[in-house]
Write a structure and sequence with these properties.
The chain has about 325 residues and is of the alpha/beta class. It contains twelve helices and eight strands.
Length: about 325
């Protein structure tokens, strides 16, 4: 990584593109034309715009991409199950195909929240396309059907009932209409963010705009009723690439105390707590996250070159 005294290379302006995946339009953004490839994957209800504080910095050293997953941001929002369900397998397949068709070389994946599970799923599906995975406050999926015995009895009883009720179209759409408002989104963000000053009107509007697209309610309701699929602890043992974990100590949704167990998997090369930071470190504390990601990427590249040189010498 370049030292602070060295002048940084000029960075081209962020460019927005659309890619056709299985006849569906997928929006992505890209910055930088040299260095290793990095793909940023957002969390639930967000988009590639949630990486707006990271793309320009990473793009000074890397070919940095951020994608809107199917159903989010500026990407297509088809009705659930037509033609694809909103599952981690679907999103993992999208990422694998994006790496092959758009990026064209193995990549470092960086995810936030459910974007971490998507990254892990993609790395399991196609290990040759993924050089490493960085997880920022990964979703522990505490409402997963296999984890319901770990939550209080009242949540264990009420969660399936609420999910069933949200399956009724009129009630589900009414609920979504209450959530998809500027005031409600701001309150949710103030709960999730450790650094309250990072919750700006710009951020609220970034999340609100896609929520008004046709099909957004159906995507939201499909995912909040999704209690199946893989967990991080299912996927990590299958990985062959290194994993870095950054975790906000003030995250109220994914408690760091529960997340520390993920550091025990052999593929995890680092677990870094971030003091005073909540659920979205890339947006709350980019001045912490960006250098950590760059150091990890460049360190990983150096180690790969050393390993390759050692293997050649031994051969």
């Amino acid at each position: 990584m370049c030292s602070e005294e060295q002048p940084l290379p000029s960075v081209p302006a962020k460019v927005e593109h659309h890619w056709q995946w299985r006849a569906l339009s997928i929006r992505y953004q890209q910055v930088g034309s040299i260095g290793p490839a990095v793909l940023l994957i957002h969390g639930f209800g967000a988009s590639s715009d949630h990486w707006r504080k990271n793309l320009p910095v990473l793009g000074q050293h890397c070919r940095a991409y951020a994608v809107d997953l199917l159903g989010f941001g500026g990407s297509a929002k088809p009705r659930p199950g037509v033609p694809l369900p909103y599952t981690f397998e679907t999103w993992g397949s999208l990422v694998v195909d994006f790496v092959k068709e758009v990026i064209g070389e193995p990549v470092y994946l960086v995810g936030n929240s459910i974007g971490c599970i998507v990254a892990l799923q993609a790395a399991v599906m196609d290990p040759t396309s993924v050089l490493g995975v960085a997880m920022l406050d990964p979703s522990l999926r505490l409402l997963h059907e296999r984890k319901q015995q770990q939550i209080p009895w009242w949540r264990r009883w009420s969660t399936p009932l609420i999910q069933t009720l949200l399956g009724w179209p009129l009630l589900g759409h009414f609920f979504f209409a209450q959530v998809a408002q500027a005031g409600a989104i701001k309150n949710i963000l103030l709960q999730a963010y450790g650094r309250k000053e990072a919750v700006t009107d710009e951020l609220v509007q970034t999340l609100l705009k896609p929520a008004r697209d046709p099909g957004a309610a159906e995507v939201f309701l499909a995912f909040v009723r999704y209690s199946q699929g893989p967990l991080a602890e299912d996927l990590l043992p299958q990985l062959t690439c290194p994993v870095l974990i950054l975790w906000g100590e003030a995250d109220p949704w994914e408690p760091i105390a529960l997340g520390r167990a993920l550091a025990e998997f052999p593929c995890v090369v680092g677990f870094i707590p971030l003091a005073g930071v909540g659920h979205c470190p890339q947006d709350e504390a980019p001045e912490l996250v960006n250098p950590l990601l760059l150091d990890w990427i460049h360190g990983s590249l150096s180690k790969s070159k050393q390993d390759s040189t050692a293997a050649s010498a031994n051969g």
